[in-house]
Amino acid sequence: METQQKDESPEWEKETRKMVANQLISRGIADQNVLRVMRNTPRHLFVPENLRSEAYNDCPLPIGERQTISQPYIVAIMTELLALKGSEKVLEIGTGSGYQAAILAQLADTCYTIELLPTLADGASSLFKRMGYNNIVAKCDDGYKGWPEHAPFDRIIITAAPPEIPQTLVDQLKPEGIMVVPVGKLYQELIVVTKTKKGIRKESIIAVRFVPMVKPE
Ligand code: SAH
Description:
Elements: H1 11-24, H2 32-40, E1 61-64, E2 67-69, H3 72-81, E3 89-93, H4 99-105, E4 110-115, H5 118-131, E5 136-140, E6 153-158, H6 167-171, E7 173-183, E8 188-195, E9 200-208
Parallel strand pairs: 3-4, 3-6, 4-5, 6-7
Antiparallel strand pairs: 1-2, 7-8, 8-9
This protein binds S-adenosyl-L-homocysteine.
C-alpha cells in the first residue's frame, strides 16, 4: 500500500521555508548556511505577540521603544556579507529583538551583542536563555564604546545607523576583519568595511533604512 508522506513540521517551519524561497533565494542570497539557519529559526518568537502572524512577512516590524526588527532579507544579506566560517568572535551593536544575534550565534563561535535600551536588552536576554543560545553574551550599554574587554573581534555588525563609520569599533576589529554597517542619516548605504594593513577598504552594497545609532548624552 502506498503511504502519503504528511508534512508534520510545525506551521512556522512552513513559513520560514516560504520566506527563504520567496524573499532570500529569489533575491540572490546563496550562502547555504545562512539559508539553513534562517529556515530553522522561529522568527515569530522575536516579535511582539500581537504581530506574530506577520513575523514572516517581507518587512521590518515594530518591537517597542520605537525600534524595529529588520526585514528578513536585510538580516540575510548582512549575515552573508560577514562571510562566517564558524570560528569567529562576532560583535553586534543593536540587539533589539535578539533575532539577528540568534542567527549569528548559529554561524559563529560567540556572539557578543550590545543594546542601549534596557527594556529591549532585558527582553532579548531572557529570550536567549529560554531558547538556549548559550554562546550569546549580551549587555545593556552604549555600542559606540564597543566591548574592549572582549576585543579584538573577527566580525562586527551594526544594526542601527551611525552617521559615519565609528572609529572606536574599527579599532576593535582584527586585521583582515570585516564590519557590516549602514552608514548615513535618514537613508543609508550598507557598507562592508575590511580592515587592511594600511587602514580600511570600503565597499558600498545597497541602499537601506535603519533606525539611528543613538549617542547617549
Ligand atoms: N538587530 C536587531 C534590530 C535592531 S534595531 C534585531 O535583530 O531585532 C536597532 C537597535 O539598535 C535598537 O534596539 C536600538 O535601541 C539600538 N541602538 C541604537 N543606538 C545604540 C547604541 N548607541 N548602542 C547600542 N544599541 C543602540
